[in-house]
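Dear V.,

Thank you for sending over the compound details. I've combined the ligand you provided, zinc ion, with the protein sequence from our construct and run the structure prediction for the complex. I'm sharing the raw inputs here so there's no ambiguity about protonation or stereochemistry in the SMILES, which I know was a concern on your side last time.
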Amino acid sequence: MLFLSILFYPIIVIMRDMLNGAKGIMIQLRLVNVMEEIVSGLVRFYLRSPEYQTFCHCEECEMKIIAKALNGLPSYYVTTENDRNKAFDKLKSSSYIEKINKEIVHAIHVAGKRKNHSE
Ligand SMILES: [Zn+2]
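Below is the predicted structure of the protein with zinc ion bound, written out as structure tokens.
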């Protein structure tokens, strides 16, 4: 019995380490579209600004505007926090922000015109 437990011990340790390692990777690695994060944040910000007060602020319209804007923009997927930060820095540059803003403003005007629900 002692012999068996000595044999099994390394396997248990290896499996335990593998599981712990997998947990660590899952926390660190996840699939994120940085463009989606930026566009969602900007749309929410714009809809709450005085300039867009006349447009609907409900969740349904907000999501439609985000979806419409994202369909006109390239996706930007990352898997690590480090790459996410790098992507944010890249997308913050003036040429990208101009393109993103243009799509969002267009999406707000198109989606804001459609009233598919009553409030
Ligand atoms: Zn609405």
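A first observation: The pocket of zinc ion is lined by residues 56, 58, 60-61, 117 (CB under 6 Å).

Warm regards,
I. M.
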